[in-house]
């Protein structure tokens, strides 16, 4: 199957080039070029193949995790700051480095909103949350001037409102 960009997404690159899915192995004697065992073939051991790039994986879990490299979505959000990550593992590493006190129950108890009781993972997250109650709006849209208390709301606004404006003016 060919996509609008002309890329065949139903076969792997090796299949598109006419290569076989079997692997040939040649065991050569030490110090010589004499084959000790020839023409031993076996089927590829990674049956789960990405339709976009042809990379193979041992199971569907690895294939699903790999699929993230083909998208710009960053679904893993840090609950202490505004950073977003494509992979859960990247978020975990970020938290360990940037917010080392976050993981303990004691730190959760330390950061409680006095207004609504919401528990935050770290001081920065509590400070950001407090803007909900104070109506402090520190993020201002450079296109239309609308203001936001959370950077995630501002980013969503720019992505939805102003990229849609660009799309409709092109049509």
TrEMBL record:
Subcellular location: Nucleus
GO cellular component, one term: nucleus
Keywords on record: DNA-binding, Metal-binding, Nucleus, Repeat, Transcription, Transcription regulation, Zinc, Zinc-finger
Domain of life: Eukaryota
MF (Gene Ontology): DNA binding; DNA-binding transcription factor activity, RNA polymerase II-specific; zinc ion binding
SMART domains: ZnF_C2H2
InterPro entries: Znf_C2H2_sf, Znf_C2H2_type
Main location per the UniProt record: nucleus
Primary role: May be involved in transcriptional regulation.
Protein name (Swiss-Prot/TrEMBL): Zinc finger protein 192
């Amino acid at each position: 199957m060919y996509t609008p960009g002309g890329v065949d997404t139903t076969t792997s690159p090796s299949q598109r080039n006419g290569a076989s899915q079997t692997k040939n192995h040649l065991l050569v004697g030490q110090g010589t070029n004499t084959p000790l065992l020839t023409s031993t073939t076996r089927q590829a051991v990674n049956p789960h193949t990405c339709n976009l790039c042809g990379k193979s994986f041992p199971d569907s879990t690895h294939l699903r995790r790999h699929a993230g490299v083909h998208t710009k979505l960053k679904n893993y959000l840090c609950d202490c700051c505004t950073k977003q990550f494509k992979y859960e593992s990247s978020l975990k590493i970020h938290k360990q480095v940037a917010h080392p006190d976050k993981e303990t129950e004691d730190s959760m108890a330390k950061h409680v909103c006095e207004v609504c009781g919401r528990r935050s993972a770290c001081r920065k997250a509590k400070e950001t949350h407090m803007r909900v109650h104070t109506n402090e709006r520190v993020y201002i849209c450079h296109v239309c001037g609308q203001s936001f208390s959370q950077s995630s709301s501002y980013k969503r606004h720019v992505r939805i409102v102003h990229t849609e404006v660009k799309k409709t003016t092109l049509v």
